[in-house]
Amino acid sequence: MPVMNLYVPGLDKGKGLYFLFIKAETKTPSGLVARPVLTSYYKSQQFKTRPYDPYNVYTSPNETILCVDSFQSMYSQMLCGLMYREEVLRCGAVFASGLVRAIKFLQVNWEELALDIETGNLSDKITDSSVRECISKILKPDPDLARFVREECCEGNWEGIITRIWPNTKYLDVIVTGAMAQYIPILDYYSGNLPKTCTMYASSECYFGLNLTPMVKPSEVCYTIMPNMGYFEFIPHDPSNPVTISRDSPPKLLDLADLELGKEYELVISTYSGLCRYRVGDILQVKGFHNSAPQFKFIRRKNVLLSIDADKTDENELQSAVENASELLKKFNTTVVEYTSYGDTKTIPGHYVIYWELLVKDPSNGPTADVLDQCCLAMEEALNSVYRQSRVADNSIGPLEIRIVQNGTFEELMDYAISRGASINQYKVPRCVSFTPIMELLDSRVVSVHFSPSAPHWTSERRF
After folding, report:
1. Is 70 exceeded by the pLDDT of residue 461?
2. What are the residue boundaries of the GH3 middle domain, all occurrences included (predicted)?
3. How far is Cα 10 from Cα 360, in angstroms, rounded to an integer?
């Protein structure tokens, strides 16, 4: 906040509309509680009894943040945000996907929210007693505000909706680097191109650094490492010549003082809480220096193919999921010839899309649409617990989709790549695509579309 106040003065004169949520806790076999770092913080006394700070006043009462039911939490936080709309100076969520989900929630539920504001009575859908109690203290009948909400939402025009409903908003406080960059266009649409500030670089394991120039474009964001947060080391990373690391050939580790401008590195940390030389999995590039401290641009998560929210799916996991689903095709004498994927964020919530090319050896006994729907579910069952929790408990990821393409589609894909200069000897089918012409080619060859018929299995009883 001291950094933000240099660029946006007066942030102590209003409130922040932040959509913050906790996730369900899990337990290890020995009974220890396991939970995400932000859930741990929000449930701690440090958060619940934090001293008053005029620079960090939220529209959402603690009780709305601590409600484990995602619908009730979102509904009550949005309601409070509408009631305090003229006091809101900044809007945000942890990830860009969270803020997009909040606006989509408003699109679906604005009529009931307006009714609550008009009557001063909270919807019966909110059953959490602590949420009802805290909202009852601030919800009063306000017909004028209810009329305003209806006028802004009834025509279905959502362009600039953030600045129309919260007119004093100065910026969006969301992470839009890395995989979250895919949400920049929709946030620009909703906010009328408000600045998007990526204020910090952190993970569950450690806080790493600050963005000392928070008002720059997302593509220009750099983070300055704070060396007092842990001990930071770096493995040189060359995409064209990956390093093989084994017990017999440990990597060469560099200190902060040894890094070079323009080079890429994999981050390794040792923390006060006991992690020793832990590989975070982030690839960073040195873009400059603040005094002598390197400033990094986040390049990508190492080996991550797909990410919609907090989920991270790598190539090996995607391959295992495809193999798991392929078992359902064996009785139909059918196999998956090739596949690729992408994360579709045009829908809210976003979801995984998998393109399959099938070899059906007996066309008279090929897999039915119901079987292919079950293949979607089988893939989801094989993905990690973070993905399945996001699907089941958090509703932050939509049902997985499989698109069946015509035979020969992936040969066309190779021909296209070769026409652009790829080597026919070294060509490999990309397991994740984002290049528009390739996606247009794939979509033009789709013969059927299938979705998971139900949510995958997920339980808070985690087995390690």
Report:
1. no
2. 223-301
3. 65
